Amino acid sequence: MPECAKWYNSALLNEVVPKKDLSEFALPDAAKDLVFMAKLTEEAERYDEMVQCMRKLVKMNSELDTEERNLLSMAYKNVIESRRNAWRIITSIERRESAKEKSENMPFIASFRREFETELGAVCEDLLGLLDTYLIPASQGCETKVFYLKTKGDYHRYYAKIAPRLSSARPRLMPMIKQRR
């Protein structure tokens, strides 16, 4: 194992700022309080917590108003964008390293890339699940339905971008591929 991969593994075990289990994040029970918490977490740029607030709101009330839809969209957009940007950088570095004759860094880079792919897949599956289970079936107006269907298309596109590398993505994407034919 390359030296940098050993460092990475030991750094994960001895985190400077330990990752907080987001299940410990105390969420209010009232819809108006969840909206307030979503706005608060957005201001603090704590988008993972913002996603939690909005996920709970969706499960409580599938019919979101315009402000709530925008908060949901903003939460997932910020969570996915940071990971997509990191993934693009890592895959670019991976291509550059693989072009070298002998790269000791490839295991480290590949491991790091897979971590981002797993996170990207999980975020996409989470929002797609909310859209399919709660939001699209409960949508009343045309504008709302179009908003959700566009969002669904965007997240399927993000998912498809990493899907060739994720074996878990295949079962989810196959019905859509067959549907398009």
From TrEMBL:
Report which superkingdom the organism of origin falls in: Eukaryota
Q: Which residues form a coiled coil?
A: 37-70
The family database entries (Pfam families) matched by this protein are listed as: 14-3-3
The answer, when asked if Coiled coil is one of the entry's keywords, is: yes
| SMART domains the UniProt entry points to | 14_3_3 (SM00101)
Statement: the UniProt record of this protein carries the keyword Nuclease: no
Alphabetically ordered keywords of this record? Coiled coil
Q: Where is the 14-3-3 domain?
A: 31-179
Matching entries from InterPro entries are given as: 14-3-3, 14-3-3_dom_sf, 14-3-3_domain
Q: Its family?
A: Belongs to the 14-3-3 family.
Q: Which PANTHER family match?
A: 14-3-3 PROTEIN
Q: What is this protein called?
A: 14-3-3 domain-containing protein
Q: Which organism is it from?
A: Trypanosoma vivax (strain Y486)
